[in-house]
Design goal:
It contains three helices and 20 strands. By secondary structure, it is mainly beta. The radius of gyration is 19 Å and the shape is globular.
């Protein structure tokens, strides 16, 4: 079975992030994140996993197992809690369980006026977007079932959206905050994920670089930049919330506003896959709101009835929210060891990436395999 998407000719998305988010009617969200906790073990390549007997508490149950009529609350997109300094090595609500805990800096050079550092919030409706509207003829996404694996290929270019102009031009208003010098380049992406992933004995930390891939063919990175800050808040992205890193990989740090807008109705919409094989969903209640942290577990997911592998199935999955860390806080399954990413080129231009902390697991940001020099 093969699912293939290709960007239609002339498909252009021109709305900025602030206008897309206004159309979400204050879509609510919050995030629960967890680290693996005290006593966690480290495997032979430095990937930290849970200590024996440690587990992630399940999310609150929902009658019927599907999307409820109303989530636990709503997050104002004009006052999103800032995710800075929320890198942890033990389970903490609203923090990221990061395999890297020491950072070399990088990312945006100056804070924009959409950041309120005193209040520790940021206004997504006021954030500047990188200018430009570029289509990519090479953009494609293919998803094939081969035995017990889901094989995904793409060129890491959006199939149904345009991108901004990178490197950021000096004439672009975004340049005064973020001088991102990197270009976007077509890559060769090939991932083999478990078709029926299972929950591991305990959670696993997420590395820098890619933590998954979305169904428009673009890499999903974790929620922090090279300095360990909230990347969605600090760094400037294009109108669909993407930008390139030093390896010229285009990527997102959250579920982009253009995909959130496309999944505006009540229910669950599969928008991508984490590296452990579990799905990433946009789930909206009767009012169009996204979940809050009270609705999700410590890895930012829950078990409920969704359409999975073509059937309605009660299965674990991750959820998109507006608050840090936005998608995957830690892995509930076992992330793939060596996803096959064959580079077509690109150079390291922006400092930073893996920092000097714990080394990520195999296939998770090693060298340039999954986006060294995360931006």
């Amino acid at each position: 079975m093969t699912h293939k998407a290709r960007r239609p000719r002339g498909a252009v998305l021109t709305r900025s992030r602030r206008f897309a988010l206004r159309g979400l009617a204050l879509a609510g969200s919050a995030v629960l994140m967890a680290a693996c906790g005290p006593g966690a073990a480290t495997d032979s390549v430095g990937r930290r996993s849970a200590a024996p007997g440690q587990s992630v508490s399940p999310a609150p149950s929902v009658p019927g197992g599907a999307v409820p009529a109303a989530w636990s609350g709503v997050t104002d997109p004009k006052k999103i809690p800032l995710g800075d300094d929320k890198v942890a090595t033990s389970p903490q609500t609203g923090y990221i369980d990061s395999c890297t805990t020491s950072f070399r800096g990088g990312g945006a050079r100056h804070d924009g006026p959409w950041l309120d550092t005193a209040d520790k919030t940021w206004d997504s409706t006021a954030k500047v977007s990188v200018q430009g509207s570029h289509s990519w003829p090479d953009a494609d996404y293919t998803e094939t079932v081969q035995g017990d694996s889901r094989v995904i290929t793409s060129h890491d270019l959006p199939t149904h959206q345009t991108t901004g102009t990178f490197p950021i031009a000096q004439s672009d208003p975004a340049y005064q905050y973020d001088t991102n010098p990197n270009a976007i380049k077509s890559q060769t992406v090939s991932l083999s994920l478990p078709l029926a992933p299972s929950l591991a004995d305990g959670p696993t930390c997420v590395s820098m670089g890619a933590i998954g891939v979305l169904k428009n063919g673009v890499y999903l990175y974790n929620a922090i930049d090279d300095a360990g800050r909230d990347a969605a808040a600090h760094e400037t992205q294009d109108s669909c919330d993407g930008h390139p890193d030093g390896a010229e990989d285009y990527h997102y740090h959250d579920i982009p506003s253009c995909l959130l807008s496309a999944a505006a109705g009540k229910g669950s919409t599969l928008v991508g896959y984490a590296l452990d094989g579990f799905g990433i969903y946009v789930e909206r209640d009767d009012k169009g709101d996204l979940p809050t942290n009270a609705d999700l577990d410590a890895c930012h997911g829950r078990t409920s009835k969704v359409v999975w592998n073509g059937k309605e199935t009660t299965v674990y999955h991750y959820d998109a929210t507006l608050e840090f860390p936005y998608t995957v806080g830690c892995y509930r399954g076992t992330p793939v060891d060596h996803p096959a990413h064959q580079r077509t080129g690109g150079s390291q231009k922006r400092a930073g990436g893996q920092g000097t902390g714990r080394r990520p697991g195999p296939g998770q940001g090693q060298g340039r395999a999954l986006g060294q020099g995360q931006g």
